[in-house]
Amino acid sequence: MQVKNYPGVALIGLLAGVFLFGCQLQQEKPTSAQIETVGMKAMQQADASAERKLMSWSAQNMPVAQRELALLYQTRPEQRAQSLTLFEQAARGGDVDAAYQLGEMLRVGVVGVAAAPAAAATWYEMAAKQHHARAALMLGMLYKNGDGVARDDAQAAQWLKVASDLGNPHAMFLLSYIYRDGRGVAQDSAQARHLLEEAAEHEYPPAIQELAMTVQLGDALSPKDERRAGYLLKEAAEHRHNNWNRF
After folding, report:
1. How far is residue 69 from each of residues 36, 55, 88, 95, 163, measured CA to CA in Å?
2. Each residue of 93-130: b (16+ CB within 10 Å) or e?
3. The predicted structure's pLDDT at residue 192
4. Could you tell me which SUPFAM superfamilies the record lists for this protein (predicted)?
5. DSSP secondary-structure letter at 61?
6. What integer is the mean pLDDT of 205-218?
7. Residues 164, 175: contact at Cβ < 8 Å?
8. Following DSSP, what letter does each residue of 106-145 receive, concatenated?
9. For the whole model, what pTM was predicted?
10. Residue 72: enclosing H or E segment and its boundaries?
11. Taking 50 as the threshold, does the pLDDT of residue 128 lie above it?
């Protein structure tokens, strides 16, 4: 039996192929940047369709989507427990910022979530080991203050150094005191001064003010310099108008 080749049949086959190809494209996983864009839209514009997309992607175990949905739920008191769960799922899936955010929620506690700084340390460490500067800073502060963990000057110095090396000026500032006093590290006045200068270079107001007081009085590392002190004090006052807590 001979099969005739009808043009209409060929056209239908072609259209079916195009349709299937289009479906495959739609089913491809979005990039992290695309998910974050949708997350921003859901957050800033209260876009319900964007939120539904995040929910769908989150259900498919996409860590970035879980983190973005958790950030959205974090703004709603009635959904903060869900936010905590989503952050943990994302962190276990390898999302570094989710691990940091989970640490933040556990450290301070929020409505519906009790403070648990000891548990926060675990997540901070997970993120810090993957070069998250802010997580390393917070972990260093936990050990420095004995907040939820046993006070440990060596651990505090270690993690503050990680954050400092990653460019965090708050960590540089705290580490300068650690080297000045020799807590958890060998005392090193020169290194302490270097870190203070670095933090000031990064426009961290407390460091600028501390450096101003140091040069105003003079010390073993530099002579008294009233002119520079005045300039630094003025600079510190100007920067206080900025939100330096971002560090």
Report:
1. 10, 7, 12, 13, 27
2. eebbbbbbbbbbbbbeebeeeeebbebbbbbbbbbbee
3. 96
4. HCP-like
5. T
6. 82
7. yes
8. HHH-BTTB---HHHHHHHHHHHHTTT-HHHHHHHHHHHHH
9. 0.80
10. helix 63-74
11. yes
